[in-house]
Amino acid sequence: MKQLQIPLESAKLENGLGVVVSPDRTAPVVTVGVYYNIGFRLEPRGRSGFAHLFEHMMFQGSEHAGKMMHIKLINSSGGVLNGSTHYDVTNYYEAVPSNALERVLWLEADRMRALKVDDENLRNQRDVVKEEVRVNVLNQPYGGFPWLDLPPIAFRNWPNAHNFYGDFADLDAATLDDVQQFFRTYYAPSNAVLLIIGDVQPEEGFALARRHFGDIHPGPPRPAANVVEGPFEGVRSGEVEEKFGTLPGFAVGYRAPDRRTPDWYSLAMLDQALHGGRAGRVHRRLVLEQQIALDTAGGIHYPVGDLFDYNGPTLIVSRVLHKPEYTSEQALAAYDAVIETVRQQGIDRDELEQVKVKFRSDYVSSLEGGHGGVPRYGLMHYLACFALFDGDPALVNSILGNFLDVSADDVRAAAQKYLDPARRAIVLRLPSKKGAA
Amino acid sequence: MATPVAVDPLAPVPPLGPERPVVWPARLRRKLANGMEVVLVESHGIPKLTGELYFRSGNASAAATAPSLAALTATLVRTGTATRTNRQIEEDLRRIGADLGTSAGADTSAIGFNGLVEFAPQLLELVADLARNASFPAEEFDRERRHLLESVRIERTTPSFLASERMRRVLFGAHPYATIAPTEAQVEAYRLEQLVGYYRAYYRPLNALLIAVGDFSPPAMFEQIERVFGSWTAGDVASSPNPPLPELHGRHVHLVHLPEAVQAQVVLGNHAITRRNPGWLPLALTNSLFGGAFNSRLVMNIREQKGYTYSPHSGVQAFRQHGTFSVQAAVRNEVVAATLTEIFYELDRIRALPVGDDELADARNYLTGVFSLGLATQDGLASQLSTVYLHELPEDYLETYRQRIRSLTAQDVLAAARAHFDSANAQIVVVGDRSRIAEQAALFGDVTEYDAQGSKL
After folding, report:
1. B18: nearest CA in chain A?
2. Cβ contacts (< 8 Å) between B380 and chain A: which residues?
3. Cβ atoms of residues B328 and B339 within 8 Å
4. Of A8, B1, B311, B380, which has the maximum CB count within 10 A?
């Protein structure tokens, strides 16, 4: 297989802003992203959910573009826009016809320069965010399972272990001062990268970036943060009540190695063998063959992220919903047997070859992949993570080879080292009422 | 990098630059001798192909036998063929880096696929094997039926599902479009022979449309497709007439009681039109500025000004025979009446007053711009092509869409709103805990209450 050759050029402005341009002129559209190197892991203590609430505030008005102007200017230019908060990054992105590129950059620069919001904006978005939490978590079967359930069980250090969507009391406690303080601390050009992808020439992209972002004050260096997490000692377990759904479930998390270490590449192949769709071992064994489970899923940094978009302690997670006639102990024992088999025997060469082809195929799809109608969202996302976490956006082209070099012995070693039944986190999600109403 | 160029802090919003032309790629559109229709488009962004093999029959065609039968048939299609077990199918897919999904909606059944183009022949052979030789193993049927039973149980605890299910019943009455999922008893009553019967009747080349987009040469891909599907024998496909829709007189509230719900799902709906109707584009534009875009009136009102909800939206849905217009929002329990009041205010406003020039221009730009985003990816192209060919729209639909949207006037919007945003006869569905929301809902019409299983309370 020849190496990927996605064209890209990158540079840093004098104020520290990273700029990556990836030209592709097949369609007259361009995707723009601004990624800040801050996510919900590092929101202030006593302010759970704040990083996400803050993301909403970034649409509420900036120095020269008041409330609703961001949304109105992008939509009326024929484009879509959104933002999202992750563990270690927060992004703001637009996809527009390429004749609106400069307008998009002007807007993004305006809100990097100064946020201009008031108490009414904050009250309004606090209400909106609470409805978001209700619709996605509190009023939804299996809401937050396991992305909100596992961290407080698995981790001990507050940045890794708190409620990322936010306790309502903490959301209520957030003030406008908190908003401006967070902005000053983390939303500096030196802590961000700008991505321009699609119908643009690199020199044009860099010139526009300089014109609109070049004079923004570099801002303070990003404060040091302690996200260190000690190794798991023993099994950490807990239970969460399922208010609506009728099936019991469990999720298991094992500590994953640091990104871009040899073990990480090996574990990624093991992950594909275990969780890669219906051919994956967990699904095949528990759902198709033994028929204990009804649904399984999992992955490294699953389910609110993937292999590439985190920069701190995380888990490789399996999530299982099973038939109510099996106890949690029985279902977990069946799952453990799958894990034990791969620890003992590893995977054979044919399976590894299948897994690698699928991994390669998924990787190129995720680069092109849309997300809410945004072309090449995946390419933008990976370029940003490689730029902010690794200082090397070109990894997007070269990293695939490291996965394809993993051997069957490496996979077995990773299974033995990481999928340790004596060191893991388990959460049971148990329905409060049995069967159908 | 060079010294930064100073920017005037009072600089106005940069104007839009000159537009680059939007050029839709050529389609290779041809029929096989057995009647199967093929549409191919090249797109070389990634070394993959993506496609759908559609059959122009879905749950509506199966309604006389059993509700949602096409959906379970589709599920079973991927679980075995004359020469492959379930496990072999899944491993064969993984070996070539492919994803495959089978599904059925009201009007279609589909086998969707994507994979590395270097393995295109194997992928096409596998798709053809499922379409032609599915074996419906009894043990797979038993397992999938149990899965369906458990998933309909969970669906009936999901507010958005309950709201859609009730609204479809209200709008479609005795028509097959009224049903989006079976009851538990209906799932238990399915028999394997019904699935096999459906498959034999409707998975036929005369009923088939294959759309593929990817990093290939269309003529060469067509030859491959002909090799794989050419020997499939035609066979007739029957269709049966459907009953008329219920007439909607006045507003009525349908409350689905979900105990302990901490939020209310509010939906308004009425009948609209199909995509083949000449009024479709005016309706699409009107919907977009009403509640179809982030920048729309509905979102600005009940989200950005009032903070009642996270993701309110309105939508127009086109089936083959009919269409609907709906407005939805998940809101906190205390503001159900306030939300409905605002929605009716916005409906009545857009029906009463012509939109201003700026708002109209913004909405036209939004639709034409977002339409062209579909050009940039294989998935985007495949989705646009599916719309054109499944709904049998004119061959130049993609090329003329932007111009036709740009020619719409404020009078067109007013006429579309008056014709299709039927405020006076809007049907209201609210899903939530009745002790918190019933009194508020009753302000808007007579209330009928249901439990999550659909029984009247």
Report:
1. A99
2. 370, 373, 375
3. no
4. B380
A272 and A208 both lie in a single domain = no
- Per residue in A63-74, pLDDT (tens digit) is 999 998 999 999
- pTM for this predicted structure: 0.96
Query: pLDDT-derived band of residue B425, with 50, 70 and 90 as boundaries?
Result: very high
3-state secondary structure of A1: coil
CB contact under 8 A, B365 and A77: yes
Contacts of A333 (CB under 8 A, 6+ apart): none
* pLDDT one-digit tens code per residue, B52-82: 999 999 999 998 889 999 999 999 999 999 9
ipTM of this model? Answer: 0.95
- Number of helices (H), then strands (E), in chain A: 17, 11
| Cβ-Cβ contacts under 8 Å for A177 (sequence gap 6 or more) | none
What mean pLDDT comes out for the span B186-199?
Answer: 97
Which CATH number is A61's domain given? Answer: 3.30.830.10
Average pLDDT (B312-320) is: 97
Domains and CATH numbers, chain B: 28-229 (3.30.830.10), 252-450 (3.30.830.10)
- Strand order from edge to edge, sheet including A90-97: A9-12, A18-23, A192-198, A29-36, A90-97, A80-85
Interchain pair A139, B373: CB under 8 A:
no
* A228 located within any domain: no
User: Out of B93, B295, B452, whose CB is closest to A71?
Assistant: B295
Name every chain B residue with its beta carbon within 8 A of the beta carbon of A52: none
Backbone torsions φ then ψ of B8, nearest 5 degrees: -70, 120
* pLDDT tens-digit map of B362-402: 999 999 999 999 999 999 999 999 999 999 999 999 999 99
Whether residues A155 and A244 fall in one domain: no
Paired sense of beta strands B208-214 and A90-97, if any: unpaired
Measure the CA dihedral A332/A335/A341/A344, to 10°.
-50
Are A357 and A289 contained in the same domain? yes
- Residue that is written with structure tokens 């961290």 in the block: A151
Judged by CB atoms closer than 8 Å, whether chains meet at B116 and A361 is answered as yes
Instruction: Kindly state whether B402 is in contact with chain A, defined as any CB-CB distance less than 8 angstroms.
Output: no
What pLDDT, on a 0 to 100 scale, did the predictor assign at position B10?
55
- pLDDT tens figures, B103-158: 999 999 999 999 999 999 999 999 999 999 999 999 999 999 999 999 999 999 99
For strand A18-23 and strand A235-242, is the pairing parallel, antiparallel, or unpaired? unpaired
Q: How many CB atoms lie within 10 A of CB A412?
A: 18
Is the pLDDT at B1 greater than 60, yes or no? Answer: no
Q: Where are the beta strands (DSSP E) in B223-354?
A: 252-257, 264-271, 313-318, 323-331
**How far is B214 from B430, CA to CA, in rounded Å?**
43
Please name the amino acid found at residue A112: M
Q: Where in A86-222 does DSSP place strands (E)?
A: 90-97, 192-198
Q: Do the strands A29-36 and A192-198 form a parallel or antiparallel pair, or are they unpaired?
A: antiparallel
Burial class (CB in 10 A: 0-12, 13-18, 19+), B8: exposed
Task: Kindly determine whether residue B370 and residue A437, on different chains, have CB atoms separated by under 8 Å.
Answer: no
Same domain, A209 and A239: no
Residue type, position B309, single letter: T
Same domain for A90 and A182, yes or no, is yes
pLDDT in tens, A227-254: 999 988 899 999 999 999 999 999 999 9
Query: What is the number of CB-based contacts under 8 A between chain A and chain B?
Result: 260
C-alpha–C-alpha distance, residues B444 and B337, integer Å: 8
What is the span of the domain harbouring residue A325? 235-431
How far is the C-alpha of B3 from the C-alpha of A423, rounded, in Å? 54
Work out the average pLDDT over A178-200.
97
Query: Where do runs of H (alpha helix) occur along B177-217?
Result: 184-189, 192-202
Place of tokens 């798709």: B127
